[in-house]
Write a structure and sequence with these properties.
Distance between the termini: 14 Å
Strand order of the largest sheet: 14-13-12-15-16
Pfam family, one: DUF7963
Radius of gyration: 35 Å
Number of strands: 20
Protein name: Sterol-4alpha-methyl oxidase 1-1 isoform 1
Number of helices: 31
Strand content: 5-15%
């Protein structure tokens, strides 16, 4: 982004500016229409049902001139600058004559001779839980709560209040209502109900009289009656929900009075938290574990997945959670166990944990394990296990591989250091200079609708995770317009006369190169983060690794061209990280998976050998010969040559590569992911030796991403982790919730979902802000 320049305006420029302004107004109008449409469908604010965007055009040119909001209840027209404020002032505060009649509060009651309310009329509208108390002409007390329940009571004592109370200055005609000195409404009858607790006693009085009435004429409540089987089924479902929430819902919350009242309301007995955390948990765990063991036993082979070895800090402090799961050939994943580790974990210990897990699953039939994928220990533990057991293919997680690229760029790319230093200098100067900060906040409020400090890392950036620096860069970019306006303010000019840092920062903000570099770094990191997020969501198989890295190279070349960055240093870092992550199985799976066959000029579907380097072709031969017996090695290579020249029948190839649109994401995805393996097991039976390798190879996952444990359980483990019983319960809870989430293919935690939910809740404001900012820039 560049600073605005002061240039003279020609007539042609004026016309162009009018057109740009008209486009901005039109875009804002369309944005408001989109927000209103979503709101009417239930995904936005309530007031859009009554406010309609209007486009006002210039009478001379016919171009859009302004956007207004029209109230559909009274036809009044307002500025569209702040719909929320318009709704508050016009609708909520009673300015609109038709709004109160259109939407009455839930707690409103029909007029009665005398009414005593807990607050003003405005407060009654705003607080649904408020109650209204009515004293009828006969002296009965009616209390109506916001929940719709009402109580009726006859008075216990009606006396004339002493004049010394002074709450009511005079006594108008019966049935009138006056405002007392405390702002509340008080009845002005000839007789007044006096209770020692004041008006707060009226509700309790009504409940007392209601209880007396029930005792005089007892009636059984017609509440819901459930059978024993229905109750047991409901309690089972409740228990499953609590287990699968895995710490988000505490067992002690079952004892909460409101929850017990809810159970009673729907006809369920109280649920014992001790039982749910004890016997029921044990039964559920054994049931889920038996199902998991049966499904693993039914598969011919599996891949062990291990995630969590990378150190992650959380509130519980000294313990980290390592998840161990099993990936089956049919695409499903099953949770196996969890390991809790503290501090630095040596590679030898990780190797022992992984191998003990493998033997614990398949006993002596260790060849049933086709390989391991983990987020750490590729160079030692994984390689040692692969060297000791020739049939294994052990991979490092590509989620971590792509994430590590950001660290590589931050450490070794000079552009990142320059941008970080400049952004730190600018952000620190703005934050710590009081006059400049106040001016900046003023313009930031005008441009973005908020006033916030620029978020700056607390320590030196070289010792920080780049995520903190990236956040600071985002803040600076988002504040670009406000920063440019700050330079034009007299306050900044005054400060810059005495402060050389202010002059240096001003030159930086005016420099086009600074904004180009800042946006370049932000764009590159964002590009990689988006690929990382896609990898975590899609969980690619090993055959997709080479296409993924090639896709990254293509995107980075486009990035270099866009921001005029030299390609050499960037490509060198990508190639270095590629070699650290590369495994010969990438090339072999890419060749053997029918999903990547390429149609040649003759119509044949052949494996993509032309996409491999010479070294990668050699890796394919070496890996295949390693994964078969010595007697079958030459046969497997001959079958590989046949596969290379003949490929797959076009009909089967097209069937494997058939795609359909995902209804959730809208992306095109493979219609039947298992068809790649099934073709080898059913149709390509003549390639027997090569087929054995193919079916064990192409199903392997390239990431260890899977079940995410929420922070609540991690904190609970930190507090009770030294207790044997506590750890056993934690293991069982983890197993149950992970089993459920992996079955449902839910790979995000509750915290992620809550963050997404609140993001969607604020989506309307984001759209409005985007429209407002673009309009202001024009």
């Amino acid at each position: 982004m560049a600073a605005t320049s002061n240039t003279s305006t020609t007539p042609v420029d004026s016309v162009s500016a009018d057109e740009l302004a008209a486009k901005a107004v039109q875009k804002r109008y369309e944005g408001l229409l989109m927000v209103r449409t979503k709101a009417i469908k239930g995904k936005g604010a309530w007031y859009w049902a009554h406010l309609e965007p209007m486009l006002v055009r210039n009478a001379d040119t016919g171009l859009p001139k302004a956007v207004k909001l029209r109230c559909s209840l009274c036809d009044a027209v307002f500025s569209a600058s702040n719909p929320s404020r318009t709704a508050s002032e016009h609708l909520k505060r009673g300015t609109c004559p038709n709004f109160n009649a259109f939407a009455k509060p839930i707690s409103s009651v029909s007029p009665s001779p005398t009414t005593v309310a807990a607050g003003t009329a405005t407060q009654t509208n705003r607080k649904r839980s408020s109650s209204s108390v009515t004293i009828t002409a006969t002296g009965q007390v009616l209390v109506a709560s916001g929940s719709g329940c009402s109580y009726q009571a006859t008075p216990l004592a009606i006396v004339d209040p002493p004049r010394s109370f002074g709450e009511l200055a005079c006594s108008p005609s019966p049935g009138a209502v006056m405002t007392a000195s405390d702002g509340s409404l008080a009845p002005q009858n000839q007789h007044h109900l006096v209770l020692s607790g004041g008006k707060e006693d009226l509700g309790a009085l009504a409940m007392l009289e209601d209880s007396v009435k029930k005792l005089k004429t007892p009636k059984t409540s017609p509440g819901p009656t459930l059978s024993k089987s229905q109750i047991e089924c409901a309690v089972d479902l409740l228990a499953d929900w609590i287990y699968e929430c895995c710490g988000s819902v505490s067992f002690s919350s079952l004892e909460h009075p409101k929850f017990r009242a809810f159970l009673n309301q729907v006809g369920l007995p109280p649920v014992s938290s001790r039982e749910l955390a004890g016997s029921r948990l044990d039964v559920k765990y054994e049931e889920v574990k038996a199902e998991s063991v049966a499904r693993i036993r039914d598969a011919m082979f599996f891949q062990l997945s291990s995630d969590g070895w990378k150190v992650r800090s959380f509130a519980s402090g000294d313990r980290s959670l390592v998840n161990l799961a099993v990936n089956l050939p049919n695409g499903t994943s099953l949770y196996r166990s969890a390991a809790f580790v503290s501090g630095f974990v040596p590679s030898k210990y990780a190797e022992e944990v992984l191998w003990e897990t493998v033997t614990g699953i398949c006993g002596n039939a260790v060849q049933q394990c086709a390989g391991i994928v983990a987020d750490k220990f590729k160079a030692k533990a994984l390689r040692n296990l692969e060297n000791q057991h020739h049939w294994m293919v052990n991979l490092c997680c590509q989620f971590q591989g792509f994430n590590s690229l950001i660290k590589d760029f931050n450490k070794d790319l000079p552009l990142f250091k320059t941008v970080t230093d400049n952004a730190l200098k600018l952000a620190n100067f703005i934050n710590i200079t009081p006059q400049i900060r106040i001016t900046f906040e003023k313009y930031l409020l005008h441009e973005c609708g908020s006033t916030e400090f620029l978020r700056v890392p607390l320590r030196d950036h070289e010792s920080l995770n780049f995520g903190l620096v990236y956040t600071m860069i985002e803040d600076v970019l988002n504040s670009a317009r406000a920063l440019q306006l700050v330079l034009l303010d007299e306050t900044y000019k005054t400060v810059s006369m005495e402060d050389p840092v202010a002059r240096e920062v001003a030159e930086m903000i005016r420099d086009m190169g600074f904004w180009n570099d800042l946006e370049a770094v932000h764009s590159l990191v964002k590009l990689i983060k988006e690929m990382v997020q896609e990898i975590e969501t899609e969980r690619p198989l090993v055959g997709q690794c080479l296409p993924l890295w090639e896709d990254l190279r293509t995107k980075v070349k486009d990035w270099c061209s866009k921001f005029h960055i030299a390609e050499g240093p960037v490509e060198k870092l990508i190639e270095r990280r590629f070699k650290k992550n590369y495994h010969p199985a990438w090339a072999a799976a890419y060749i053997l998976d029918p999903l990547y066959l390429i149609k040649d000029m003759s119509g044949k579907y052949l494996p993509p050998f032309k996409c491999l380097t010479v070294e990668q072709e050699k890796d394919v031969d070496k890996l295949i010969t390693r994964l078969v017996s010595r007697e079958e090695a030459h046969i497997a290579l001959m079958e590989l040559m046949k596969w290379r020249t003949e490929g797959l029948d076009p009909v089967y190839a097209r069937a494997v590569q058939m795609k359909e649109r995902d209804p959730i994401t809208g992306k095109m995805k493979t219609a039947n992911p298992q068809s790649s393996r099934l073709v080898w097991e059913t149709y390509l039976t003549e390639l027997k030796s090569l087929g054995k390798v193919a079916v064990r190879l192409i199903f392997l996952h390239a990431t260890s991403c899977g079940f995410k444990c929420n922070g609540s359980l991690l904190r609970w483990i930190g507090a009770h982790g030294h207790s044997r019983v506590g750890m056993e319960r934690a293991q069982k809870l983890l197993f149950i919730t992970a089993h459920s989430k992996l079955n449902r293919r839910v790979f995000s935690s509750e915290e992620d979902k809550d963050a997404e939910l609140f993001t969607l809740a604020n989506g309307e404001d984001d759209v409005l802000n985007e429209v407002l900012v673009e309009t202001s820039l024009v």
